[in-house]
Amino acid sequence: MAPVTAPRAFDLGAIALPACDRLDEMLTASTGKLVRWRQESARSAQLELRRCIQGLRQERADLESSRLGVADTERLLNDTMLAKVWTAKLEEATCQSASVAAEQAEAAKSTKVQLSGAQRAVQKELGREEEALAARRCSARVAAQGIERLLDLYRERLGLAISRAAPQTVQIVFTLLDQDEPSRKFSLTLGLAASEGYSVLDCSPHVPQLGHLLAKLNSTAEAPTALPAFVVGMRKEFKRVANMRM
Q1: pLDDT for residue 154 is more than 70
Q2: Beta pairing partners, 147
Q3: Chain segment 159-197, per-residue pLDDT in tens
Q4: 160-166 and 169-174: which strand pairing?
Q5: Architecture of 158-245 per CATH?
Q6: Which sequence spans correspond to the domains of the chain?
Q7: In angstroms, rounded to a whole number, what is the distance separating the alpha carbons of residues 103 and 105?
Q8: Helix, strand, or coil here: 197?
């Protein structure tokens, strides 16, 4: 009988979950870009503000030295208003960048929590699979041991021995059938092909009912009792042959 092959266990060490690390790297890169943008915007606004202030100072100096007219005064007021507008824009950009950074940080924190939960769920599921596989391996070992004990019992009391002769092929040997020669062997080689079903490759000694028993086996092959019934039938036929010689 073919040995029972235990399924391979999962290797938990081979599973890597770098999603959290990649998320931290992405968040760090995004924060760096945001800081650089804020610094550049601040420098640009400061430069523009300095130019406006310098213009105001120059306009004031001109006003004091040459008693500027109404048009020059209006231009000075416009420059002052422009400086205020730039100051407001700078404050708005700073507030927006801070809000975006806070939203990104919150989203990254939420995603990291979700990934951590998913990782724990996967590890728990793998643990359950490991336990189930261990239980199946234990059951398979127990079943194999039971089959071996049953075959040993058949060999001792019924003289039945079953061995693997080739892939999809077994040799069945009976003894204890001939009272005058209990060790005499009655054997057959039984093969199984996917397209043709069961076939007997060798039978010694030949029994007249072999063809009938083989046809019955193939016609009821799906039934769990078909193969045991065939073995029992062949044992009876071999015993009949042994009695005929007596």
Answers
A1: no
A2: none
A3: 899 999 999 999 999 999 998 899 999 999 999 987 889
A4: antiparallel
A5: 2-Layer Sandwich (3.30)
A6: 12-137, 158-245
A7: 5
A8: strand
